[in-house]
Amino acid sequence: MTADAAERARAIDPTRSLIVQAPAGSGKTALLIQRFLALLTTVEEPEEVVALTFTRKAAGEMRQRLIGAMESADGPEPAAEHDRRTQALARAAARHSDERGWDLAAYPGRLRIQTLDALCAGITRQMPMLSAFGAQPGITDAPIELYHEAARRLLGELERGHEWRHAVARLLTHLGNDLDRVEGLLAAMLGRRDQWLRLVADETDLRLTRPQLEAGLRRQLCLGLDRVVDRVPGACVAELAILARYAATNLDAGGQGDHPVAALRGLRGLPEADPEGLLLWQGLCGLLMTKDGVWRKRVDRNTGFVAPKDAADPGLAKDMKARMTALIEELTAVPGLGDALAAVPALPPAGYTDAQWSLIEALLTLLKLAAGHLQLVFGERGEVDFIEMTLRAQRALGSPEAPTDLALALDHRIRHLLVDEFQDTSLTQFRLLEQLVAGWEPDDGRTLFLVGDPMQSIYRFRQAEVGLFLQAAAQGLGGVSLGFCRLTANFRSQAGVIDWVNRVFPDLMPGPDEENAAAGAVAYAPAEPQQPALLDDAVQLHVFDARDPDAEAGRMTEIIRAARLADSALRIAVLVRGRTHVARLMPRLAAAGLRAQAVELDALADRPVVRDLQALTRALLHPADRLSWLSVLRAPWCGLSLTDLLTLTPGDDDASVPARLLDADARATLPPASQMRADRVAAVLTDALAERGRRGLRRWVEGTWLALGGPAAAADHAALDAAGAYFDLLDDLDEGGDIADFARLADRVDRLFAPPDPAADPNLQVMTLHKAKGLEFDLVLVPGLGRRTGQDDPALLAWTELPGDPLDGEGRSELLLAPIAGVDQRRDPIADFLRGLDKEKARLEETRLLYVAATRARQRLHLLGHVNGEAGKPASGSLLARLWPALADRVAAIVEPGAVATDRERAVPPPRRLVADWQVPDPPAGLTVGAVPVPDRAAAGGVVAFDWAGQEARHVGTIVHRWLQRIAQTGLGNWDRSRLDSERPAMAAALAETGIARDRVGKLAERVHAALAATLTDECGRWVLSDHDQARCEYALSGFVDERLVHAVIDRCFVADGVRWIVDYKTGAHEGGDTEAFLDREQQRYRRQLEDYARLFAAVEDRPIRLGLYYPMLGGWRAFSPNPDAGPAAPETAAPD
Amino acid sequence: MDQKLLEALDNGAVLVTGNRRLARALQDDHARHQQAAGQGAWATPTILPWSAWLISLWQGSHAERSPRILLDATQTRLVWERVIRESGIGEGLLGIGSTAAQVADAWQLARDWEIEFPAPDEPVGDDARAFGRWARRFEQQCGRHGWLDEARLPTALAERIQRDQLVLPITVILAGFDELTPQQQRLLNAMTRAGVTVSRHEPAGRNQSVERLAFADEAGELAHAAAWARDCLQAHPAARIGVVVGDLASQRRRVMRVFADILHPGRVLPGQPRRERAFNVSLGPPLAGYPLVRGAFNILRLMAGVIDCNELGTLLRSPYLEGGLAEADARARLDARLRRRGEREIWLSDLLGMARAQTDATDQAVAPHFVNLLQRLFVHHRESAGSQHPGAWAARFSQCLTAAGWPGERPRTSEEFQITEAWGGLLDRFASLDPVAEPIAVKPALARLQRMAAELPFQPRQPDRPIQVLGPLEAAGQTFDYLWVVGVDDERWPAPARPNPWLPLHRQRQADMPHATPARELDYARRQLARLQDSATHLVASHPARREDRAIGPSPLIRHWPVREPPAHDSGLLDFRDLVHACQATESFRDDRLPEFPAGPADGGTGMLASQSACPFQAVARYRLGARALEEPRTGPDARDRGQLVHQALERLWRQLGDQRTLLSRDSVALEGLIADVVADAVERLARRRPRTYTDRLKAVEADTLQRLLRTWLAQEQQRPPFTVAAREQPRTIELAGLSISLRLDRVDRLADGSHLVIDYKTGRIAGNAFLDGDRPDQPQLPVYALVADTPVTGVLAARVRADDPGFCGMVCGDEGPAGAQRRSAEDWAEQLHDWQVVLTRLATAFREGDAAVDPKNGSATCRTCDLATLCRIHEAGTGEDDMESAEAGA
Ligand code: SF4
Fold this sequence. Notes:
The complex is a heterodimer of chains A (1137) and B (891).
Chain A: H1 5-11, E1 18-21, H2 28-40, E2 49-53, H3 56-71, H4 81-100, E3 112-115, H5 116-126, E4 138-139, H6 143-156, H7 165-174, H8 179-190, H9 193-201, H10 210-231, H11 234-253, H12 278-288, H13 314-332, H14 337-342, H15 354-381, E5 383-384, H16 386-397, H17 406-409, E6 416-419, H18 427-436, E7 447-452, H19 467-475, E8 483-486, E9 489-494, H20 495-508, E10 528-531, E11 539-544, H21 549-566, E12 572-576, H22 585-591, E13 596-598, H23 608-621, H24 626-634, H25 642-648, H26 657-661, H27 664-667, H28 672-690, H29 697-708, H30 710-713, H31 717-733, H32 742-750, E14 761-768, E15 777-782, E16 797-802, E17 814-819, H33 829-854, E18 857-866, H34 879-887, H35 891-894, E19 895-896, E20 912-914, H36 937-941, H37 951-970, H38 977-982, H39 984-994, H40 998-1017, H41 1019-1025, E21 1029-1041, E22 1044-1056, E23 1059-1065, H42 1075-1100, E24 1105-1111, E25 1116-1120
Parallel strand pairs in A: 1-7, 1-8, 2-3, 2-6, 4-5, 6-7, 9-10, 11-18, 11-19, 12-14, 12-15, 13-14, 15-18, 23-24
Antiparallel strand pairs in A: 16-17, 21-22, 22-23, 24-25
Helix pairs in contact in A: 2-3, 2-4, 5-16, 6-8, 6-15, 7-15, 9-15, 11-13, 16-18, 20-34, 21-22, 23-24, 23-31, 28-29, 29-31, 37-40, 39-40, 40-41
Chain B: H1 3-10, E1 14-17, H2 20-36, E2 41-43, E3 46-49, H3 50-60, E4 69-71, H4 73-86, H5 96-112, H6 126-145, E5 147-149, H7 153-162, E6 171-175, H8 182-193, E7 197-201, E8 209-215, H9 218-235, E9 241-244, H10 248-263, E10 279-281, H11 291-303, E11 306-308, H12 309-317, H13 328-341, E12 345-347, H14 348-357, H15 368-382, H16 390-403, H17 414-431, H18 442-455, E13 467-470, E14 480-485, H19 505-511, H20 518-535, E15 536-544, E16 546-547, E17 550-551, H21 576-582, E18 586-588, E19 600-602, H22 605-614, H23 616-623, H24 639-657, H25 660-665, H26 668-689, H27 696-718, E20 723-736, E21 739-751, E22 756-762, H28 781-788, E23 793-800, E24 807-813, E25 821-824, H29 826-848, H30 860-863, H31 869-872
The structure holds iron/sulfur cluster.
Pfam families (chain B): PDDEXK_1
Protein name (chain B): PD-(D/E)XK nuclease family protein
Domain PD-(D/E)XK endonuclease-like (chain B): 613-873
């Protein structure tokens, strides 16, 4: 029985809506499963219960666990109390499923456990009109490319006539006409448009007007000053004023009247906490604090306190100086005052300059427009990003005032919603949840269940807002009020780890009274260990005295190896902040025989094998890509030296390398061994280049690489796998055997990561901290704690939404907006202020990241980092710096020296290459079915120019054929001119059906009519059509000709005078010139085809055969006998017409 | 094919199949039987897929009164598109074309399942209501024009049967229908009433074994399926083997590759003769994806007037046009030139000009074929201004291609031959839009044609192969000796139900339409599986244990099947790549020196010295081997442009001003005027090189930016001690270690005491003052200037002409010179000049001697600004960069 048992029981009550704070290790997923099972028994269809997870992986896991629970419903009773409860719930759910005939056992797909993205996709797919998608678009895997495209088009607006071209010009001028940068900034904004689009597009939202925005700035300024006012002890004010006046007077006297402190010359009390008082506040800051925002330790003439020896009244000077020192000392002791005062210089001005404002206006216009362009890009590509899915789902769900009637639109209503990892919800997602529960009434049987741990909110880079958790806990979500549950038991980690966390983190995280939704400040909630403590140190620190990734990597390798030796099944994880942090670790682990699983961590862009392949790709594609060609020739599979290259391709910039390489004479200028190399490579590349466009890009490059011996030159299996990942990428980028945009190739390669190594130790994982969320390991190592965190790039338009003025009444949030600093400004104070707010949030999240790292460990945790040599302190902004105060008492004991190595000292090994006489081995034998080469049409027919004769003639021919068949079938005698005339409309209709333009139909029907009329009067024509023995029209005959299966459709055949006639109609016209010569050529052209037919007949009957070609348009006729020893005829597909 | 069926066919029965593929398979099967029976030829039996059969019935019927015109799918699509676009509610949709396709499908379903649209007052969702409106409108349009679409063809035929206007067969046999829709049933009923015998032919249950297997991932699953197919075929050469892949359309490429690698390992090598494969994959990729077709579209886009630089690049590399092989080199070089010019979009007229100008020593165009074909395209371009019907465009497009020599001079393979035929077919279909289309302009016409090509799957014809890879629907009705179904997992068998979003839900449920309800979906999956089981003597079903990063299990529908252990990982999956990898015979070689560079002039100027200083390999590769990356098209002015602009503007400016006194004496209006002049002049000069990028408006913005920059900059110059500009952009030559290096001094200022300051304009960032120090200075050109300028030189300065951080840095002798520079005493200065001489000589010597050491001065920081890493192989030292401080994370 855990202490929080009652809370747990409450959490699965299917009648309540709840928000549950479930800290690390508290068995959150099990709880979700139990609740899901409990809810199933209350619904009519299982689809009415929807669980939303953070990732697809989590959804998959939860589903498998749920299926497992359902399956073991009938199993033996488990030992643990918790599992027994799950089983009881599962049994009830299974019973309910049977009663309702859900067939869940056969159809687990009915359990709706999905990500929010998948839910959105489902909504938009089900509501094509309301989402305004129409057909559901795909999801792009490279949204950034689309953002850039939209941004480029927006910049193109400069050339249009619209008024917003001025806005474009305004922005470009502001940023120094740096189009690439502006494009990037716009693209970045588009990647976050869910945050601003709603506001920008809403013309009625007055918060975007200048007075409102400036009111917000002013309020922030006043708030900042208020914070100081509130903290200055009343008793000090008078003294402060006296001292300030004294200092100011001295500065005035010393000719320093423009010193900030001098402004205090008339100070009587604290300045007003408003913009007018700002100058005085800045003076006070200068008086009391240094530029870096620390209390002044020394009071001297710089701030108006003349040294007594220089003063007119040394006594007074001495006294005043002492009083000032004493005052500062007193103020220093006031909690929070220092921070509040230090923040004053960073407070924003109370308004925008006109230039700033006009820029903001331009930006707002442009952003709206950029979003519009993005829509067009989406439409053209038929692909959108996840944001669009969410926005469209929101749109489909309707406005709060007029929510969509989901009963009509969705096949299943949602009655119960469970949301996992709620602490990482973004504002957009929060709104979507609000829409989903719109119209829910209390006690209507529908429930909302939110679970998460605000202490583990670490996805700010995906716009997660931890404050939303606090908000929901306090105010509910949408109209749904939520009961609050807090779990405290930790089933995961041994007591040693928990105790450490409980000891260290309360100091690092805000206290319970400092929780602040807007600032993203969440308090620490202690955990109760459920696993007994292990004997030795649970948490160990390894701090080096200088930055040394190699030392850290070495230490980790030692720890892991030792742990592995002790216990081969131990689950071990190395958790890193950034992907680059593992660069040194992976090779070391590999060298120690430890194959770690690293998911999307190990960048491939700079692996030699991938670089070489990229060069090979580009070289094959582009003969003038000189650098790539040279690289191909120096790569290990070829290994020409620089001197060889110089010999082969004398430095003339314009000469093509491949032309020289493929020229045997040029190769002959090389020394013999090099020539051997060049010859081998040239042979392969000659073949490869001849196949341009004949294979998919991937196969082309891959085959060439194999033939060159690329795999033989690859260092190890990891290199081969890297190559495989690169080939997969080529498949994605293939545009008809080519790549148009090489930069895109490079971009994608930069985002290429080593594929999972199937032979890796599944119990040794390397991953980012973010990926580790929700996972647990026996042994956890966290390196790189001494590194600084990177800074976000400034946004085009910085943006913050803060809780509004409490007096505003409508409870709307307040907006703060700042444009990016221009090229000729170093900084923009408002933008800096917003950045400051953001940095504070980031700082808080950093601590939570550390918490997540620490709580992954079941048994032991190793933290590795470094301090700066001289200062002996960690770099500010590093995670270690955050931890430092809690460790301060042990510092001396932990810091140890590491060997400093810079990357200059990493020697570059001499290049490697295959030996000169290397030969590619024979491929394994494959299946040899049909070893005959495919008959090459071109070889038979030579190069034929493309000739699309236009459709009219062909369609006319089709219809003529059709009527000739009718005439023959219905009896020639029944046909005369007047009957033909009466069938004109039918001919026209038949022609129209073939897709001939309306206005041409009449004319062409005339042509059909004319041909038929001519045939009816032509003697030859009449003979062909007349009633013969064994006459057939459109006779379909199949058979084998020279082993080939031939399907023939013979226009007309019959027996006359004991001779089998095979006749083909040819409706081609022949304008002018020599008709006879034309017919001769035609005979030549169709002879083989007709001879094929003849052979088919010869196979079934024993009659002499004559072949005929009839030309209704010309009244032309050719009859001939098949040539008995005609060579094998053209394949069946050759038949033109 | 059993005896009964054979006889029926002989007696003229019509065999109608549920899918196209089955019709072909049965036709082939029939042929095999005939062959076995010793027949050389026979009357082809009528075996048609359902839709083709209906069309043939329709065309064979004669209703002379009020003939209706049957529209094909392409034409119908266009009608839907117009209906949606003109409906008022459809305009805002993201993709009208794709929506029309979906709506047309919904329409087909609605007709097949005889679902009526909702009455106007019926409570349905907006989607069903919109569909209802469109559908009514569509019917009206069809009625007005006398059109009939294929979705309603069965009903129309049934009517004709009633009116006795249809020539009917005596016997109809159905094969491969999982189920018949109500509309199909209605037609068949009408036939039965008219005396036609309708029967069904289903393969007799032939199953002898079922098994299931699990694999770690999808890749392993597919590879083993391929190996299994191969083994089956080797053991039973006459067997019919099938592999069913659920989402074949998206997996097609992977399937092709895996099967090719396992069944025919060596064929991936270049230069292999093209041979028949032992397998075929039923689905073809879209026609638009074939290189030949891409080439055609690129030609047509170019003809339309403007083409993206990158796309033009692919056209210039394409073998599928006149001279594509013979002029490949010249065209690639033309592309490199275009890239250097850096315009993102290329006008046909500009291109023609450039191609003409690309001449050899004898003034002949190096790519005469290209020039000719451009000229011909240009004629077509001029004639393509207005709007026309698709048929006219089809003709124009085909003439254009002929004019461009498409499909090229390389002898065509049979596949390429068939693609050209398919292209002709595409033009046919495009032209056949005439009766339903409005005239359109060239670009929308091309876009539509492109979309059609993208939606048209194309597969070159192949004879029947023993191993078939197909989708579950295509397998319907066929029989196999060995059949393997991949991906039978709990996510897909059954898949979640997906009712059609356009049709009212309750109607779908009432009609019990496929996918409408979970129960229906489950039933559907069960039936499909049962059908597959019936069709195969030996059936294997497999599933991966993971998809992406999710764990999945076997489908509950096969969970009770006996489990077969998967074969050990490598057995039978021998990989050619691994074989090659095993032939590792490598050696390392020294390659850090080139033969000596001859004394005399050296190209590259001071840039060569900077390179040499940064990394000897870089200098050698760039300046002796000419190793340069292809350039990428740019959007606006880049750093290089900006540098040039500043240089030119300042050169002109000081030409006018001459000295600081004049600068100070000018009033602000005059100065502004002067700045505007020099800026306009510089911008104009740049614009001449990239006229399409530098439009008037962009020039105005650039001029504005530059003027502000110069204003900021002149404020710096105003604060300096007095100076006269003694030289601007002055060419000089320096002799170092036998090399003579030409260079240009940006500017030399003469100070009041007659000494000289050398000034180099910098528009990039320079940090600190260390760029002159050490054996390997970052900016060796400044010391060089100090050595060649008129004496006495008392300082070298980099002028940071930047808006955000204007100022000087560098080194001066004495206290004169602007703030920001390091100051040296006279002795130190003299020594410094001497040191520089030594340093520079050493650098030049190293270059002359061919030093090619891979030795970046600041490690990876130096390499980051260099593009030669593949050539120098620096990354062999380890996948280096570990110094990025990033908060970036991935999940
Ligand atoms: S990449 Fe680095 S090592 Fe290679 S040439 Fe360039 S600077 Fe030198």
